[in-house]
Structures are given as structure tokens and as C-alpha cells.
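Can anyone check this?
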Amino acid sequence: MTYLPLSYLLSSRAKIDIIRILLSKQNFSGRKIAVLSSTNPNSNKKALDFLIETGLVRRELIGNSFLYNINEKHFLYEPIAALFKEEEKIANKIMKLACTFIEESAPKTIAGFISYHKNDIELTFIAHSFPAGELADIVYEKTGLKIFIKVVDILSIDSKSIENYEDRFYFWNNYKSIQKIVNSKNIIQTFFNF
């Protein structure tokens, strides 16, 4: 079998993560890519070097640091961008389903975040209680995808642990609102009728 360019470009999780990050058309430092990526720094370094060699990723020295961005003139840019757009549509559909579910079945949910964990799309909810199985069934029924749902009890979160959620992509509530709620136990007690 002949291996064509996509076989090489998409042959590792690190490469896929980096391409996904850079398709936002922003410049990122290697350190920021490592933070946003779900793979280890060595894999990221090798993947970045490989993607630079192929010409899909460009590296520029700006000030004292290297910044990376996607090369929109690369011959595979358009098909790769289309592939990741399709992936984004699926994630958006899952977020819309989750929002509708929260409004109807779990209105006291403080926040919802989407991320990718191994082979799963992972939804994390900050709530006092959340019917995770019910939502997973709805998403599977509507999309055919099995998702992983994690529920973090609002009562176990403090202002230090809430920092873990600052850079996550949220679809329900925002970081500042979450911080206000966490910093005011009175709001939590009123909200959950304790």
C-alpha cells in the first residue's frame, strides 16, 4: 500500500492536536501548544518539527520566542481544515444537546465544559447532582456517539481548584460567573436550597 501525505500528517495524536490548535489561525508558542495539547511535551516537539518539515506549520522568531501558525498555502490545508470543521460540527451538536438537556432536566448546573479525552468527547459538569446517564443516552440516540461525562460536585470545588477550568472550553456559564458562585457560599446554599 502506498502511503499518501495524510498518512504522515495525521499519523499521531500529537500531530492531530497541534493541527487542531493551529487551525484557529492564531500564533501559538510551543509552550502554549503543549498546554492545550493532550500529549506529552516530547511528542509535541517531535510532531511540531515534523509538521514544520512538511510545510503545513510555520515557525517564526518573534522577540525572544518562536511562534507557530498554520500555513494556509499548503496544498493540504483546505482538505484538512474541512475535516476538522466537520469534527467541530459534531462537537457543536453535542454542546447544543447538552444545553437543551440542562435547561429542561438539570437547571441547577453551574457549568459545562467540553474536551477530548483519549478516544472520547468528554463533557464535564459542575453541579450538585447531574443525571449523566440520561444525557449520555440522548447524545448516543441523536448522534450515534458515546461520550464520557464527568460530574464535579460544586461543594467540592474551592477557588484554587476552579483555576483548572479557566482555559477549558465552556458551553454553559463562564469562568467569572463560576468564580463568583464558588466564592460565595451563600449563593451556593440559596441556589441548591441547603
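Reply from J.R.: I decoded it. The helical segments are 5-9, 13-22, 30-36, 41-54, 77-105, 132-143, 175-183, 185-191.
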